[in-house]
């Protein structure tokens, strides 16, 4: 699909109807709401740009009002533009937003952990009271993306989590984690062999553990390899493996690893 296309097309409607028919006939799976392909991260930059948009809208309104009032007068842009409308919106965002916190700088580890924290609470998110067990629980797509260890105890458990060591957020807001490519049972151990995948792209792939013993050429030493495929953990022959973890600690966050 074209990334620049921002409206529904005929093809989209056809695909939606096809999917619904398959769903009725039990030929398609219902989307898992807790799967990380259905949950995106709203970064600070995105939220800040939304606030800028609000500020600019307010400013344009005040400019129009001032132009209407001073109909026949001669005026300069300085007379019309009031920058305080934008600065007040930004100050309000940083001062009163539910997710705005004073940075923990007890030590460098506390600081970097605080910066990498993810929250399901706040505007447009969940509330502690409404969040059930399923939302808080560890999902298999969290592997290499959200740390299963580092989460607070008490009412926020599972709602506030931490980004994994090698996890990163792509331009669409989905969390990616790195893997090594594997072809015909041989791992690409070069620098170019690492690819970052989202939870959706990783779906259905057989992934070997990061500490699986390898020969110098990248082939697996053992005839059976411990691996994972979605929520299952099969022991397979090397030819079935499509990807390999980059390191055993990629499951945890910086503080936990």
UniProtKB/TrEMBL annotation:
<dbReference type="InterPro" id="IPR042107">
    <property type="entry name" value="DNA-dir_RNA_pol_bsu_ext_1_sf"/>
</dbReference>
<feature type="domain" description="RNA polymerase Rpb2">
    <location>
        <begin position="6"/>
        <end position="42"/>
    </location>
</feature>
<dbReference type="Pfam" id="PF04561">
    <property type="entry name" value="RNA_pol_Rpb2_2"/>
</dbReference>
<protein>
    <recommendedName>
        <fullName>DNA-directed RNA polymerase</fullName>
        <ecNumber>2.7.7.6</ecNumber>
    </recommendedName>
</protein>
<dbReference type="GO" id="GO:0003677">
    <property type="term" value="F:DNA binding"/>
</dbReference>
<keyword id="KW-0804">Transcription</keyword>
<keyword id="KW-0548">Nucleotidyltransferase</keyword>
<feature type="domain" description="DNA-directed RNA polymerase beta subunit external 1">
    <location>
        <begin position="179"/>
        <end position="247"/>
    </location>
</feature>
<dbReference type="InterPro" id="IPR007642">
    <property type="entry name" value="RNA_pol_Rpb2_2"/>
</dbReference>
<dbReference type="GO" id="GO:0032549">
    <property type="term" value="F:ribonucleoside binding"/>
</dbReference>
<dbReference type="InterPro" id="IPR007645">
    <property type="entry name" value="RNA_pol_Rpb2_3"/>
</dbReference>
<dbReference type="InterPro" id="IPR037034">
    <property type="entry name" value="RNA_pol_Rpb2_2_sf"/>
</dbReference>
<dbReference type="GO" id="GO:0003899">
    <property type="term" value="F:DNA-directed RNA polymerase activity"/>
</dbReference>
<feature type="domain" description="RNA polymerase Rpb2">
    <location>
        <begin position="101"/>
        <end position="169"/>
    </location>
</feature>
<dbReference type="GO" id="GO:0006351">
    <property type="term" value="P:DNA-templated transcription"/>
</dbReference>
<keyword id="KW-0808">Transferase</keyword>
<dbReference type="Pfam" id="PF04565">
    <property type="entry name" value="RNA_pol_Rpb2_3"/>
</dbReference>
<dbReference type="InterPro" id="IPR019462">
    <property type="entry name" value="DNA-dir_RNA_pol_bsu_external_1"/>
</dbReference>
<keyword id="KW-0240">DNA-directed RNA polymerase</keyword>
<dbReference type="Pfam" id="PF10385">
    <property type="entry name" value="RNA_pol_Rpb2_45"/>
</dbReference>
<dbReference type="InterPro" id="IPR015712">
    <property type="entry name" value="DNA-dir_RNA_pol_su2"/>
</dbReference>
<dbReference type="GO" id="GO:0000428">
    <property type="term" value="C:DNA-directed RNA polymerase complex"/>
</dbReference>
């Amino acid at each position: 699909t074209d990334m620049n296309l921002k409206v529904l097309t005929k093809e989209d409607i056809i695909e939606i109807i096809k999917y619904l028919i398959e769903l009725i006939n039990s030929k398609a799976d219902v989307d898992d709401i807790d799967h990380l392909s259905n949950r995106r991260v709203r970064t600070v930059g995105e939220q800040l740009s939304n606030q800028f948009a609000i500020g600019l809208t307010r400013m344009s309104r005040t400019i129009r009002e001032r132009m209407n009032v001073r109909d026949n007068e001669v005026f300069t842009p300085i007379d019309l533009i009031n920058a305080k409308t934008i600065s007040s919106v930004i100050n309000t965002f940083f001062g009163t937003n539910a997710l705005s916190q004073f940075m923990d700088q007890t030590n460098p580890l506390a600081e970097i952990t605080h910066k990498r924290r993810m929250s399901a609470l706040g505007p447009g998110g969940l509330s502690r009271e409404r969040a059930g067990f399923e939302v808080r629980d560890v999902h298999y797509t969290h592997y290499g993306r959200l740390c299963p260890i580092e989460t607070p105890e008490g009412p926020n458990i599972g709602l506030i989590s931490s980004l994994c060591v090698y996890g990163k957020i792509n331009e669409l807001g989905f969390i990616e984690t790195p893997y090594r490519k594997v072809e015909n049972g041989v791992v690409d151990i070069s620098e170019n062999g690492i690819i970052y995948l989202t939870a959706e792209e990783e779906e259905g792939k057989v992934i070997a553990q990061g500490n699986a013993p390898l020969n110098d050429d990248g082939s697996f030493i053992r005839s059976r390899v411990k691996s994972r495929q979605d929520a299952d953990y099969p022991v397979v022959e090397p030819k079935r493996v499509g990807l390999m973890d980059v390191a055993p600690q990629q499951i945890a966050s910086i503080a936990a690893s």
